[in-house]
Design goal:
The protein contains five helices and four strands; from the N terminus they run βαββααβαα. The protein is of the alpha+beta class and 146 residues long.
Length: 146
Protein backbone atom coordinates (compact mmCIF):
# COMPACT_ATOMS: atom_id res chain seq x y z
CA UNK A 1 0.00 0.00 0.00
CA UNK A 2 1.36 3.44 -0.85
CA UNK A 3 2.59 5.32 2.20
CA UNK A 4 0.47 8.37 1.34
CA UNK A 5 -2.80 6.44 1.43
CA UNK A 6 -4.92 7.17 4.50
CA UNK A 7 -8.53 5.94 4.60
CA UNK A 8 -9.68 9.09 6.40
CA UNK A 9 -8.25 11.32 3.67
CA UNK A 10 -9.23 9.34 0.56
CA UNK A 11 -11.44 11.20 -1.86
CA UNK A 12 -14.56 9.72 -3.40
CA UNK A 13 -13.93 6.55 -5.40
CA UNK A 14 -15.69 5.81 -8.69
CA UNK A 15 -15.78 2.77 -10.92
CA UNK A 16 -16.39 3.02 -14.65
CA UNK A 17 -16.99 0.34 -17.25
CA UNK A 18 -16.14 1.46 -20.78
CA UNK A 19 -17.30 -0.97 -23.48
CA UNK A 20 -15.62 -1.35 -26.87
CA UNK A 21 -16.73 -3.24 -29.95
CA UNK A 22 -14.41 -6.11 -30.75
CA UNK A 23 -11.79 -7.73 -28.58
CA UNK A 24 -8.69 -5.62 -29.04
CA UNK A 25 -7.49 -2.74 -26.91
CA UNK A 26 -5.31 -0.32 -28.80
CA UNK A 27 -4.05 1.62 -25.78
CA UNK A 28 -5.42 5.00 -26.90
CA UNK A 29 -7.08 5.49 -23.50
CA UNK A 30 -3.84 4.98 -21.56
CA UNK A 31 -2.32 8.45 -22.18
CA UNK A 32 -5.53 10.17 -21.00
CA UNK A 33 -5.62 8.10 -17.81
CA UNK A 34 -1.91 8.74 -17.23
CA UNK A 35 -2.39 12.52 -17.65
CA UNK A 36 -5.25 12.54 -15.13
CA UNK A 37 -3.12 10.65 -12.63
CA UNK A 38 0.02 12.75 -13.19
CA UNK A 39 -1.96 15.99 -12.78
CA UNK A 40 -3.32 14.80 -9.43
CA UNK A 41 -6.92 14.85 -10.62
CA UNK A 42 -7.39 11.12 -9.95
CA UNK A 43 -5.45 8.20 -8.54
CA UNK A 44 -6.02 4.97 -10.46
CA UNK A 45 -6.69 2.30 -7.85
CA UNK A 46 -7.56 -0.75 -9.96
CA UNK A 47 -7.82 -1.53 -13.64
CA UNK A 48 -8.87 -4.65 -15.56
CA UNK A 49 -9.91 -5.58 -19.07
CA UNK A 50 -12.56 -8.04 -20.15
CA UNK A 51 -12.77 -9.76 -23.54
CA UNK A 52 -15.94 -11.61 -24.54
CA UNK A 53 -15.81 -13.70 -27.69
CA UNK A 54 -18.58 -14.19 -30.21
CA UNK A 55 -19.45 -17.53 -28.58
CA UNK A 56 -19.55 -15.98 -25.11
CA UNK A 57 -16.29 -17.16 -23.55
CA UNK A 58 -14.63 -14.56 -21.34
CA UNK A 59 -11.01 -13.61 -20.63
CA UNK A 60 -10.03 -11.17 -17.91
CA UNK A 61 -6.77 -9.33 -18.49
CA UNK A 62 -5.05 -7.72 -15.52
CA UNK A 63 -2.75 -4.72 -15.71
CA UNK A 64 0.37 -6.87 -15.32
CA UNK A 65 -0.48 -9.12 -18.29
CA UNK A 66 1.77 -8.67 -21.32
CA UNK A 67 -1.18 -7.87 -23.56
CA UNK A 68 -1.80 -4.49 -21.91
CA UNK A 69 1.23 -3.90 -19.69
CA UNK A 70 3.12 -1.83 -22.25
CA UNK A 71 0.26 0.60 -22.94
CA UNK A 72 -1.21 0.78 -19.44
CA UNK A 73 1.72 -0.12 -17.17
CA UNK A 74 2.70 3.52 -16.75
CA UNK A 75 -0.83 4.53 -15.74
CA UNK A 76 -0.48 3.15 -12.23
CA UNK A 77 1.83 1.03 -10.17
CA UNK A 78 -0.68 0.42 -7.40
CA UNK A 79 -3.27 -2.31 -7.53
CA UNK A 80 -5.72 -2.34 -4.65
CA UNK A 81 -7.93 -5.17 -5.90
CA UNK A 82 -11.08 -3.16 -5.44
CA UNK A 83 -12.55 -5.03 -8.39
CA UNK A 84 -13.38 -8.56 -7.27
CA UNK A 85 -13.66 -11.57 -9.53
CA UNK A 86 -17.41 -11.43 -8.93
CA UNK A 87 -17.51 -7.77 -10.03
CA UNK A 88 -15.68 -8.62 -13.24
CA UNK A 89 -17.96 -11.63 -13.89
CA UNK A 90 -20.99 -9.36 -13.52
CA UNK A 91 -19.54 -6.93 -16.06
CA UNK A 92 -18.72 -9.80 -18.42
CA UNK A 93 -22.23 -11.23 -18.13
CA UNK A 94 -23.65 -7.91 -19.27
CA UNK A 95 -21.33 -7.46 -22.24
CA UNK A 96 -22.61 -8.40 -25.68
CA UNK A 97 -20.71 -11.12 -27.55
CA UNK A 98 -17.60 -10.03 -29.48
CA UNK A 99 -16.90 -7.01 -27.30
CA UNK A 100 -14.52 -5.88 -24.59
CA UNK A 101 -14.49 -3.51 -21.64
CA UNK A 102 -12.10 -1.48 -19.56
CA UNK A 103 -13.07 -1.54 -15.89
CA UNK A 104 -11.31 1.14 -13.87
CA UNK A 105 -11.59 2.31 -10.26
CA UNK A 106 -10.17 5.70 -9.35
CA UNK A 107 -10.01 8.00 -6.38
CA UNK A 108 -11.15 11.54 -7.14
CA UNK A 109 -8.13 13.13 -5.50
CA UNK A 110 -9.36 16.57 -6.56
CA UNK A 111 -12.27 16.12 -4.10
CA UNK A 112 -10.33 14.56 -1.20
CA UNK A 113 -10.12 17.76 0.86
CA UNK A 114 -13.84 18.46 0.49
CA UNK A 115 -14.73 14.83 1.32
CA UNK A 116 -12.57 14.96 4.45
CA UNK A 117 -14.19 18.24 5.54
CA UNK A 118 -17.67 16.79 5.02
CA UNK A 119 -16.82 13.67 7.08
CA UNK A 120 -15.22 15.75 9.85
CA UNK A 121 -18.36 17.91 9.97
CA UNK A 122 -20.55 14.79 10.32
CA UNK A 123 -21.94 15.46 6.87
CA UNK A 124 -23.32 12.71 4.69
CA UNK A 125 -23.69 12.61 0.92
CA UNK A 126 -27.36 11.96 0.22
CA UNK A 127 -27.38 12.09 -3.58
CA UNK A 128 -24.81 11.95 -6.31
CA UNK A 129 -25.84 11.86 -9.91
CA UNK A 130 -23.88 12.34 -13.09
CA UNK A 131 -25.58 14.52 -15.69
CA UNK A 132 -25.75 12.53 -18.95
CA UNK A 133 -23.53 13.84 -21.73
CA UNK A 134 -26.50 14.34 -24.07
CA UNK A 135 -28.18 16.63 -21.52
CA UNK A 136 -25.00 18.72 -21.21
CA UNK A 137 -24.68 18.91 -25.02
CA UNK A 138 -28.31 20.06 -25.28
CA UNK A 139 -27.78 22.74 -22.62
CA UNK A 140 -24.65 24.03 -24.36
CA UNK A 141 -26.45 24.06 -27.71
CA UNK A 142 -29.34 25.99 -26.14
CA UNK A 143 -26.90 28.72 -25.07
CA UNK A 144 -26.16 29.34 -28.75
CA UNK A 145 -29.87 29.67 -29.51
CA UNK A 146 -30.40 32.60 -27.14
Amino acid sequence: MPSDLNADAVGPVDVAVVAFEGNRFNGDVAPALRELQESGTVRILDLSFIHKTGVGSVDVVELADDEVAEAFGEVTDAQFDLLSDEDLRTVADNLPPDSSALVVAWENTWAARLATAVRESSGELLLFERVPRDAVAEAVAALGDE
